[in-house]
User: What shape does this take?
Amino acid sequence: MADFKDVDFIKSVFHPKDLPKQAFPEIAFAGRSNVGKSSLLNKIFNRKGLVKVSSTPGHTQSLNYFLVDKSYYFVDFPGYGYAKVPEELKKKWQFLLENYLINRENLRGVVCIFDVRRTPDELDLSLLQFLSEIKKGIIIVLNKIDKLSRTELQKQRKTIDNLFNPYCATIFPVSSMTSEGVKELKIYLLDKVLAHKK
Assistant: This one.
Protein backbone atom coordinates (compact mmCIF):
# COMPACT_ATOMS: atom_id res chain seq x y z
CA MET A 1 0.00 0.00 0.00
CA ALA A 2 1.39 3.40 -0.96
CA ASP A 3 1.16 5.13 2.36
CA PHE A 4 3.27 6.35 5.23
CA LYS A 5 2.18 5.17 8.67
CA ASP A 6 4.60 7.16 10.82
CA VAL A 7 5.94 10.64 9.98
CA ASP A 8 7.81 12.83 12.46
CA PHE A 9 9.43 16.22 12.09
CA ILE A 10 13.03 15.82 13.27
CA LYS A 11 14.88 19.11 12.91
CA SER A 12 15.58 22.24 10.88
CA VAL A 13 19.10 22.53 9.50
CA PHE A 14 20.67 25.93 8.82
CA HIS A 15 24.30 24.84 8.36
CA PRO A 16 25.92 21.70 6.88
CA LYS A 17 27.57 20.85 10.22
CA ASP A 18 24.09 20.32 11.70
CA LEU A 19 22.97 17.70 9.19
CA PRO A 20 21.87 14.39 10.75
CA LYS A 21 24.07 11.33 10.45
CA GLN A 22 23.60 9.59 7.13
CA ALA A 23 21.70 6.75 8.75
CA PHE A 24 18.77 6.57 6.31
CA PRO A 25 18.13 7.05 2.58
CA GLU A 26 16.89 10.57 1.80
CA ILE A 27 14.67 12.21 -0.80
CA ALA A 28 14.75 16.00 -1.11
CA PHE A 29 11.94 18.30 -2.27
CA ALA A 30 12.80 21.50 -4.14
CA GLY A 31 10.71 24.16 -5.85
CA ARG A 32 10.09 27.85 -6.28
CA SER A 33 8.53 29.81 -3.44
CA ASN A 34 4.74 29.30 -3.36
CA VAL A 35 4.81 26.41 -5.84
CA GLY A 36 2.74 24.37 -3.39
CA LYS A 37 5.61 22.29 -2.00
CA SER A 38 4.41 22.27 1.61
CA SER A 39 0.83 21.42 0.61
CA LEU A 40 2.08 18.58 -1.58
CA LEU A 41 4.22 17.16 1.22
CA ASN A 42 1.24 17.22 3.58
CA LYS A 43 -0.77 15.38 0.94
CA ILE A 44 1.99 12.81 0.44
CA PHE A 45 2.23 12.27 4.20
CA ASN A 46 -1.58 12.26 4.47
CA ARG A 47 -1.25 14.67 7.38
CA LYS A 48 -2.83 18.08 7.83
CA GLY A 49 -0.49 20.83 8.95
CA LEU A 50 2.62 18.69 9.53
CA VAL A 51 4.52 20.78 7.00
CA LYS A 52 3.74 24.43 7.67
CA VAL A 53 2.00 26.13 4.74
CA SER A 54 2.52 29.87 4.36
CA SER A 55 1.18 32.44 1.91
CA THR A 56 4.42 34.38 2.40
CA PRO A 57 7.13 33.48 -0.16
CA GLY A 58 10.44 32.52 1.39
CA HIS A 59 8.80 31.16 4.56
CA THR A 60 10.92 27.99 4.67
CA GLN A 61 14.47 29.08 5.52
CA SER A 62 16.18 25.79 6.33
CA LEU A 63 16.39 22.14 5.37
CA ASN A 64 13.50 20.56 7.27
CA TYR A 65 13.94 16.88 8.05
CA PHE A 66 11.04 14.44 8.36
CA LEU A 67 11.62 10.84 9.44
CA VAL A 68 9.25 8.52 7.61
CA ASP A 69 8.37 5.10 9.03
CA LYS A 70 11.64 5.24 11.00
CA SER A 71 13.34 4.17 7.78
CA TYR A 72 14.10 7.19 5.59
CA TYR A 73 14.20 10.98 5.54
CA PHE A 74 12.20 13.39 3.42
CA VAL A 75 13.97 16.76 3.28
CA ASP A 76 12.05 19.96 2.54
CA PHE A 77 14.18 22.64 0.85
CA PRO A 78 13.73 26.42 1.09
CA GLY A 79 11.82 27.80 -1.89
CA TYR A 80 14.01 29.47 -4.49
CA GLY A 81 13.46 32.38 -6.87
CA TYR A 82 11.90 34.84 -4.44
CA ALA A 83 13.40 38.26 -5.21
CA LYS A 84 12.64 39.91 -1.84
CA VAL A 85 14.79 37.51 0.17
CA PRO A 86 17.92 39.40 1.36
CA GLU A 87 21.04 38.67 -0.69
CA GLU A 88 22.95 37.51 2.40
CA LEU A 89 20.25 34.92 3.12
CA LYS A 90 20.29 33.75 -0.51
CA LYS A 91 24.04 33.13 -0.22
CA LYS A 92 23.57 31.16 3.00
CA TRP A 93 20.87 29.04 1.33
CA GLN A 94 23.05 28.45 -1.72
CA PHE A 95 25.99 27.35 0.43
CA LEU A 96 23.79 25.00 2.46
CA LEU A 97 21.97 23.51 -0.52
CA GLU A 98 25.01 23.02 -2.73
CA ASN A 99 26.94 21.43 0.12
CA TYR A 100 24.00 19.13 0.84
CA LEU A 101 23.40 18.12 -2.76
CA ILE A 102 27.04 17.47 -3.57
CA ASN A 103 28.12 15.70 -0.39
CA ARG A 104 25.04 13.83 0.84
CA GLU A 105 25.85 10.25 -0.21
CA ASN A 106 22.54 8.84 1.02
CA LEU A 107 20.48 11.25 -1.11
CA ARG A 108 18.50 9.00 -3.46
CA GLY A 109 16.73 11.65 -5.51
CA VAL A 110 15.46 15.21 -5.70
CA VAL A 111 11.77 15.90 -6.33
CA CYS A 112 11.66 19.14 -8.32
CA ILE A 113 8.20 20.72 -8.07
CA PHE A 114 6.90 23.12 -10.70
CA ASP A 115 3.66 25.01 -11.16
CA VAL A 116 2.33 23.48 -14.38
CA ARG A 117 0.93 26.87 -15.43
CA ARG A 118 4.39 28.40 -15.61
CA THR A 119 6.89 27.70 -18.37
CA PRO A 120 10.19 26.82 -16.64
CA ASP A 121 12.78 29.57 -16.96
CA GLU A 122 16.57 29.71 -16.85
CA LEU A 123 16.66 29.47 -13.05
CA ASP A 124 14.51 26.33 -13.07
CA LEU A 125 16.56 24.69 -15.80
CA SER A 126 19.85 25.59 -14.09
CA LEU A 127 18.72 23.56 -11.07
CA LEU A 128 18.01 20.55 -13.27
CA GLN A 129 21.33 21.00 -15.06
CA PHE A 130 23.20 21.14 -11.74
CA LEU A 131 21.47 17.99 -10.46
CA SER A 132 22.26 16.24 -13.74
CA GLU A 133 25.93 17.23 -13.55
CA ILE A 134 26.34 15.88 -10.00
CA LYS A 135 24.41 12.77 -11.02
CA LYS A 136 21.52 13.06 -8.60
CA GLY A 137 18.24 11.44 -9.55
CA ILE A 138 15.60 13.92 -10.72
CA ILE A 139 11.86 13.40 -10.20
CA ILE A 140 9.75 16.17 -11.72
CA VAL A 141 6.34 17.04 -10.30
CA LEU A 142 4.01 19.34 -12.24
CA ASN A 143 1.73 20.63 -9.52
CA LYS A 144 -1.63 22.45 -9.72
CA ILE A 145 -2.97 20.55 -12.73
CA ASP A 146 -6.47 21.26 -11.36
CA LYS A 147 -5.95 24.89 -12.41
CA LEU A 148 -5.93 24.00 -16.13
CA SER A 149 -8.46 22.42 -18.47
CA ARG A 150 -7.45 19.13 -20.09
CA THR A 151 -6.77 20.93 -23.37
CA GLU A 152 -4.66 23.59 -21.65
CA LEU A 153 -2.80 20.90 -19.71
CA GLN A 154 -1.96 18.93 -22.86
CA LYS A 155 -0.66 22.04 -24.58
CA GLN A 156 1.45 23.07 -21.59
CA ARG A 157 2.81 19.55 -21.17
CA LYS A 158 4.20 19.59 -24.71
CA THR A 159 6.10 22.80 -24.00
CA ILE A 160 7.39 21.63 -20.63
CA ASP A 161 8.28 18.11 -21.77
CA ASN A 162 10.47 19.52 -24.54
CA LEU A 163 12.38 21.63 -22.01
CA PHE A 164 12.81 18.74 -19.58
CA ASN A 165 13.67 16.12 -22.20
CA PRO A 166 17.49 16.48 -21.88
CA TYR A 167 17.34 15.49 -18.21
CA CYS A 168 15.57 12.15 -18.75
CA ALA A 169 13.53 12.71 -15.60
CA THR A 170 10.39 10.89 -14.54
CA ILE A 171 7.48 13.36 -14.67
CA PHE A 172 4.37 13.27 -12.48
CA PRO A 173 1.41 15.64 -13.07
CA VAL A 174 -0.35 16.11 -9.74
CA SER A 175 -2.74 18.28 -7.79
CA SER A 176 -2.15 18.79 -4.07
CA MET A 177 -5.67 20.21 -3.97
CA THR A 178 -7.60 17.26 -5.46
CA SER A 179 -4.97 14.53 -4.80
CA GLU A 180 -4.90 13.60 -8.49
CA GLY A 181 -1.61 11.87 -9.30
CA VAL A 182 -0.41 11.87 -5.67
CA LYS A 183 -0.88 8.11 -5.18
CA GLU A 184 1.24 7.35 -8.26
CA LEU A 185 3.95 9.68 -6.98
CA LYS A 186 3.92 8.05 -3.55
CA ILE A 187 4.23 4.57 -5.05
CA TYR A 188 7.20 5.70 -7.11
CA LEU A 189 8.91 7.34 -4.13
CA LEU A 190 8.38 4.30 -1.92
CA ASP A 191 9.78 2.00 -4.57
CA LYS A 192 12.68 4.34 -5.25
CA VAL A 193 13.63 4.67 -1.59
CA LEU A 194 13.05 1.07 -0.61
CA ALA A 195 14.97 -0.20 -3.62
CA HIS A 196 18.07 1.47 -2.15
CA LYS A 197 17.63 0.36 1.44
CA LYS A 198 20.47 -1.73 2.80
